Amino acid sequence: MTSSGKTYRRYTNLGAAIHMLQTKQITLLSPEKWDDGNDRHFMEVYKDKRNLQTLVAICLANDADTYGHWRVFSPAGDGVCVVLRKDLLIASFEGVPGVRHGEVDYREIKHLNGHPPTVYELPFLKRWPGRSEREYRVLYEHATEGTKAKDFPLPDGCIADVVLSPWMPESLVASVKRTLKSIEGCSGISMYQSTLVKNHEWTSITDRARNDGR
């Protein structure tokens, strides 16, 4: 099941974004270095119980631009969010051998204690406190092929926007945008800096604040 939104967001860094734009591919990586130890454990158990040599995955966000996503997944000034068209991305993975994809199901511990999940469910389960992430995952598994990374082609038009970190120094934004747009096939992609932490329209409202006598 997927949400009603039209895009997924891949929070990453500038180097990975350049790779995506140049190769027109999306890269699934080993979850062994994921920050969340609960997620790592679930994926390790899934891999072991299914006797897999390869288990790689990518995590995407359903929601619009949020402070939490930037801080958790792209906290540095070279952070980048690549916005992907949902319909094209999902269609590109349909029927691909070894690929599973879907929205993450957020469950409470008290519910799982009485009804443990199946092994097959593990890659798409997270704890209830993380539900605001509204995460979508794509994973690739293989019983005999051994790899820690796997590239998959992105269909034409799949990349809708490239959003630069709200903490990127303003003096660098124009040069970074110019460089990214110079990549073949990227000149028409919308590119801009997130204004989450420095929105001039928002801050200008304080200049019009009304004194109501309190």
Description of the structure:
This protein is α+β, with helices and mostly antiparallel strands and 214 residues long. It has one domain. It is built from 7 helices and 11 strands. The protein has helices at residues 14-23, 37-49, 67-73, 86-93, 109-114, 170-181, 200-204; strands spanning 7-13, 25-29, 54-61, 79-85, 99-103, 105-107, 125-127, 135-142, 149-153, 159-164, 190-193. The protein has a 4-stranded mixed beta sheet with strand order 1-4-10-11, with helices on both faces. A 3-stranded antiparallel beta sheet has the order 3-8-5, with no helix packed on it. Helix 5 (109-114) links the parallel strand 6 (105-107) and strand 7. The longest helix is centred in the N-terminal third of the chain and has 13 residues, at 37-49. It is globular and about 65 Å long. It starts with 6 loop residues before the first strand and ends in a 10-residue tail after the last helix. The model has no long low-confidence stretch (mean pLDDT 92).
